[in-house]
Amino acid sequence: MTDVTGAPADVLHTLFRTDQGGHEQVVLCQDRASGLKAVIAIHSTALGPALGGTRFYPYATEEEAVADALNLSRGMSYKNAMAGLDHGGGKAVIIGDPEQIKTEQLLLAYGRFVASLGGRYVTACDVGTYVQDMDVVARECPWTTGRSPEKGGAGDSSVLTAYGVFQGMRASAQHLWGDPTLRGRKIGIAGVGKVGHHLVEHLLEDGAEVVVTDVRQESVRRVLDKHPGGRVTAVADTDALIRTEGLDIYAPCALGGALNDDSVPVLTARIVCGAANNQLAHPGVEKDLADRGILYAPDYVVNAGGVIQVADELHGFDFDRCRAKAAKIFDTTLAIFARAKTDGIPPAAAADRIAEQRMAEARTRR
C-alpha cells in the first residue's frame, strides 16, 4: 500500500481538489509481483461502511484512474443514501486491461489491500470484474460481495440493476404521461451487455418496442438472435440511436458521460433513464435537459438495484427480499420528480438534496 505522499504531483493535485467531493480516505495500492496498481477511494462512511464495486480498466494515466475513483465513490455515497442502505460510498479501480493482466495472483493481492482497511470498504463487481473474480478476492478479504451462490454470494447483480432501471422507467412514464406502462413506447438502449440485455427482457414483457446498439457487435447479435420477431431492432451507433425518430425513452447503459454538449441538443427522446453511472458529462447538463423538456431520471437512483443486492449479501442473501427493495425505486423516483417540481430544480439536483440530507442527519446522530 502506498501513502498518498508518495504519489506523483499531478495525482496529488487531483486528490486534494475541493471539487472532487471531500473524500475521507484514498489509498494507492501497488504489488510489484502481480503487477497490481489500484486506487481505493472512500468518500463517506456517515451511513456505514463504504460500499462500491471494483472497476478494472486500462486508464491512460494514473491521474485519470484517481479521478475516476473519486468521482465513482462520491456517486456511491449518493446512490447508497437514496437506496436507503446503511452504507457509505466507496469505489476501487484497478489500472490495466483485464483481458491482458488479470490473474489470480493479482486479484488475491487486491483482496489483501481491501482487507487491510478492516471493513471500512466493502467491494463488489463493476466494469471489467465478474462474479468469479470476487470469489478469488474473497479468499483474502471477508468484505467482498457479488460472489457466486456456490461461495455463499448473491451472484450476478446486473439482474436487479436492470429491474431497478425498469422501475425508474415506469415511474418516469407515470410522471410524464400519467401511466406507468411502457406498452407501445419506443425505447433505445445504448449498451446491451451485463445490464442492458436483462433490461430488454423487462421492456419486451411490458409491450415496448426496443432499439439497441453496442460497441460490441456480438452483444447486439445475441439480443437480435434471441428476439427475431422484429420488436427489437439495431442501429449502427449511439449517435444514430439518440437521433432515432419517434424515440420515447433513451437508456444509456454503457460507460458514463453519455449526456453531454453534443448529445443533448439532438436527443429525440422525452425521457432519459438508464443504467450507466455518471451520465451527466459536467455540471449544467441537467439544466440543458430540463430546458429541452427532457425528463431525466437520476442514474444513481434508478441503477441502485445491483447495490441493493450486494448489500443484502452481507446479511444472508434473499432474492425476493432484494427484488421487493429494488421495486421501491419506482416510488423513490416519483418522490424525486415531486421534490424537483416543488423546489423548481432539475431532478438530478433534487436527488442530490435528498441524499445529502440523509447523510447530514446520519452525521448528526453519530
UniProtKB/TrEMBL annotation:
Gene giving rise to this polypeptide: vdh
Reactions catalysed, as given in the entry: L-valine + NAD(+) + H2O = 3-methyl-2-oxobutanoate + NH4(+) + NADH + H(+)
The record's active-site residues are K91 (proton donor/acceptor)
Q: Which domain of life is it from?
A: Bacteria
User: What protein name does the entry list?
Assistant: Valine dehydrogenase
Entry's EC annotation: 1.4.1.23
Per the UniProt record, one Pfam family is: ELFV_dehydrog
Tell me the CDD domains matching this sequence: NAD_bind_Leu_Phe_Val_DH (cd01075)
Originating species:
Streptomyces jeddahensis
Which InterPro entries does the UniProt entry name for this protein?
Answer: Aminoacid_DH-like_N_sf, Glu/Leu/Phe/Val/Trp_DH, Glu/Leu/Phe/Val/Trp_DH_C, Glu/Leu/Phe/Val/Trp_DH_dimer, Glu/Leu/Phe/Val_DH_AS, Glu/Phe/Leu/Val/Trp_DH_bac/arc, NAD(P)-bd_dom_sf
Binding locations of NAD(+): G191, V192, G193, K194, V195, G196
Alphabetical GO biological process terms:
L-valine catabolic process
The enzyme's first-digit EC class, named in words, is: oxidoreductase
User: Known PROSITE patterns for this protein?
Assistant: GLFV_DEHYDROGENASE
Protein's UniProt keywords contain Secreted: no
Tell me which family the UniProt entry assigns to this protein.
Answer: Belongs to the Glu/Leu/Phe/Val dehydrogenases family.
The beginning of the lineage is: Bacteria, Bacillati, Actinomycetota, Actinomycetes, Kitasatosporales
Gene Ontology CC: cytoplasm
Tell me the keywords, alphabetical order. Answer: Branched-chain amino acid catabolism, Cytoplasm, NAD, Nucleotide-binding, Oxidoreductase
